[in-house]
Amino acid sequence: MSGLAWAGIGLAGIGLVLILFCILRAVQLRRGDADPEVASAGLKRVILVNTAAVALAFLGLAMLLAGLLIF
């Protein structure tokens, strides 16, 4: 069952990288001189990606925990 643990580590890592991307993109949108409507649409997209990234990281951590408990 170590494969389950390694898959969980991979998913959690991908989720964390996506969360960092969301943070950097949100800061970039807030500092930019874009139109408020364009910035709002961009932030809504960042929120969607951020929610998916948190879910992916949670799933990866759950898989890691399951793999460790089974092992």
TrEMBL record:
Highest rank taxon of the organism: Bacteria
Membrane-spanning ranges: 6-27, 47-70
Keywords: Membrane, Transmembrane, Transmembrane helix
Entry keyword annotation includes Transmembrane helix: yes
Name of the protein: Uncharacterized protein
